[in-house]
Amino acid sequence: MTGQRAAAEPYTTRFESEVTSIDGREVWLERSYFYGESGGQPADRGTIGGVEVADVQYVDGEHVHVLAEEPSFRVGKRVLCSIDWSFRMYCMRAHTASHLLYGAGRRLLEDLGYGGFDISEERVRVDLKTSTEIDDELLLELDTLVNRAVWESRPVTWEDEPVADARERDDIAFNEATEEGAFRKGRVRVVTIGSEDDNGNTTGLVRRDGGARDLWDVAACGGTHVRNTREVGPVTVLGRSNPGEGLTRIELAVGPRAIDRREAEKRVAFASRRTLDAPLESVEDELARVDAEREELTEQVRTLRRQLVETRLEEAEPFERDGLEWVATTVEDVDSNEAGEITSDAAGDVADVVVLAGDAGSQYAVVATNGSVSAEAVVADLTDEFGGGGGGSTSLAQAGGFDATPEDIVTALKA
């Protein structure tokens, strides 16, 4: 047998075994059906001789059971061991769900490879190597395929075979870095999610009619799995991220957390339907229309705001400073970037030097010139007088964080 007994007999959750060694809180058993943390799957929970198991590690082919407290039983004693079935079953479902996702990826993604895996109580993480960019539409397709495979009640089987033979098969996904528990003494444990109608006989690769079998996924794996995909239950793809170059991380929720996520998504969908007063199937189109209208209105507001500032500059009374014509005024509801565009366009037309002072969360001043004086030097004078900091070029500069109001800045320039 390759790997851990728990992987070979995942439905075994109560057994008796002889205690072979004890070191403080660490206990070794003659045989154990506890799953030791491995390959991204957490250790089983439960009790040994009535004492809570805090952790299980699989070291050099042996299970090291770490108890929550030192046991009262001694070496040679036979003890009753009980595995927390709800957590064991959650891990079985979650691990199988990760294989379902990889199988879905086989059908949708190019240059697919396996990059990592992890089960937590909140979600399942699968890292994929692929040249395909996974966008929202692909996420939805992956979610659909995973849940369809659950619905199709595909059998899940596991068996050992020689590593050399397994490597000759191009349908097996290998990742020895995270699945070292699948390998032992020249043999590898292969988990297969079969076709809809093969009645559990998933080892063959050719149908009776000579065509390729509809196997969902085949992978070297040392984890625990359910016997049929229907046991996985509800699965929801939560999202994606990029944990490193060449990797895309997909996160799933399984069981109650998947149901909770579905409920939250439905609430959003129904709220959108009510707000838009549209059938659910039309919400996406209505949202696109509303978004386009919003962008158009935003651009109109920006244009009107710019026109207002330009009018204010034209109506501002010019003043002379250092032999040059200056215009300085305050603005509202305009950020420093937009103010910079306006002053750049106005410099040389409205005046030699144009200054806009505003407050977009904090005070700022933007200075643009026609080159007759350095805008950066003007900004330096302002920061010397009012604090803050800034910089720029000869023709355009800005500063912020002043200990003064925009009105104070304009007044100081005119003094």
From TrEMBL:
Q: Does the keyword Acyltransferase apply?
A: no
Biological process annotations from GO = alanyl-tRNA aminoacylation
SMART domains attached to this UniProt entry? tRNA_SAD (SM00863)
* Location of the Alanyl-transfer RNA synthetases family profile domain: 1-264
InterPro entries reported in the protein's UniProt record: Ala-tRNA-synth_IIc_core, Ala-tRNA-synth_IIc_N, Ala-tRNA_ligase, Thr/Ala-tRNA-synth_IIc_edit, Transl_B-barrel_sf, tRNA_SAD
Q: Which SUPFAM superfamilies match?
A: ThrRS/AlaRS common domain (SSF55186), Translation proteins (SSF50447)
Q: Which UniProt keywords apply?
A: Aminoacyl-tRNA synthetase, ATP-binding, Coiled coil, Ligase, Nucleotide-binding, Protein biosynthesis, RNA-binding, tRNA-binding, Zinc
Coiled-coil boundaries: 280-314
What Gene3D superfamilies does this protein map onto? 2.40.30.130, 3.10.310.40, Threonyl-trna Synthetase, Chain A, domain 2
Top-rank lineage group of the source organism? Archaea
A molecular function (GO) term: tRNA binding
Family matches, as PROSITE patterns: AA_TRNA_LIGASE_II_ALA
Q: Which family is this sequence assigned to?
A: Belongs to the class-II aminoacyl-tRNA synthetase family.
Instruction: From the Swiss-Prot or TrEMBL record, give the protein name.
Output: Alanyl-transfer RNA synthetases family profile domain-containing protein
